[in-house]
Amino acid sequence: MGRRVCVRDSGREGGTVSSFWPFISAPAIRAGTQNVLQACKDLGVRYLVYTSSMEVVGPNMNGDHFIRGDEDTPYNICPEGPYACSKAEAEQLVLRANGMKVAGGMTLHTCALRPTGIYGEGNPVMENMYHQLVKFGRRRLRLARKEVEHGRVYVGNVAWMHLLAARGLQARPGLVGGEAYFCYDDSPYLSYEEFDMHFLGDSGFRMVGMGQAPLPFFALYLLALLSQWACRILRPLLGFQNFLNVYTLRMITSTFTVSTDKAGRHFGYSPIVSWAESRDRTRAWVRQLGAAPPQRE
């Protein structure tokens, strides 16, 4: 029999990770998936599970909300920025490769998983945010209105869905092959800021901002634009790293939630780690960050 491999893309996802990506070469990001597909062809690999992202769908730069949507919900998809664009292009490459002939006369079967914002132990975005917020007196500025909601998913459930998808792809290639699936669990729908306070609040952090939002959107937009350009100028000189740019602001202030059972119907997915356990594990990890020195990128 030909080799059977479950491969995960190396792109980082979770929370507002997009704020790190405007300075990465887009061609360098794309090359990895092309290399993986070529390796599948040369080595006779028969099964490939690609870690995509919810960002291949949205939120888009128009600020359109995606509320309790599924894989077939109509939406104005227009990915922006190197991360989202590279993920969208790579997902299409992988899904189009479904049915491709590989070495040994075998057939490659592929599918893609689209995690919502990933959280959990070891998340580099949250770790960096933790140390940045410590410098600001453990205060976090509220950017999104309270009614804005996002889907989040615990890292352990993301890994579990990958395992089940790999099994399903082998058992039912005609059904799972060529398909994309949102990757989700039972975590509550809240804004990024409100959700993160489930973990940060336990370590003495607090949200600041008056009313539903501290500033009108146009003021936040100008702040994000200024931060984005300051980062472009200062990063090469001082290693300056911002957590807010125009793209990230749209991510934070636009609702994106999913309601779907496609993964459950196609390969039996349901979360293996409950919200309570996911929350407690992440809280314990965040508390440990206070005893460890910040890690340099």
Question: Could you provide a short overview of the structure?
Answer:
The chain has 297 residues and is α/β, with parallel strands linked by helices. It is built from 10 helices and 11 strands.
Report what the structure shows.
There is one protein chain. The protein has about 300 residues and is an alpha/beta fold. The protein has a single domain, classed as NAD(P)-binding Rossmann-like Domain (Rossmann fold, 3-Layer(aba) Sandwich), CATH 3.40.50. The protein is about 45% helix and about 15% strand. The chain is built from ten helices and eleven strands. The protein has helices spanning about 25-45, 80-95, 125-135, 155-170, 175, 190-200, 215-240, 245-255, 260-265, 275-290, and strands spanning about 45-50, 65-70, 100, 105, 110-115, 115-120, 140, 150-155, 180-185, 205-210, 255-260. The strands form five sheets. The chain has a three-stranded parallel β-sheet, with helices on both faces. The chain is globular, with a radius of gyration of 20 Å. The termini are far apart.
